[in-house]
Amino acid sequence: MLSSIHKLLCAKSVVQRHESGSRIVLRSDSSYLIVDCTIPMTADSLSNYLPRLSDRLIVLGYLRSANIQEFGTHKSFPCKYTLEALILKQTPGLDLVAWEESIRLE
What we know:
Shape: globular
Strand order of the largest sheet: 7-2-3-4-6-9
Number of helices: 2
Oligomer: single chain
Number of strands: 9
Structural class: mainly beta
Radius of gyration: 13 Å
């Protein structure tokens, strides 16, 4: 399986943690992306610090578009940061550049 590294600029994030694996929701002004992680985010995981760090390399899994229902009621982190991520697979046709251009930096 081919992989590629993407540095994503995110306006907000929601982290959904499970011992078997986790999900990160990345939000721009126009839409949401969901990253289904290939690694667990347990209580002692370095991934817990993701919303407070820049340029952290995290091995992630599948990146796809999300809808507002999937965004859910989980706690969001209203911060702006870059995420350097190893993306194993992404939705065909997903335009990350256009998605990032929809983020308004204040």
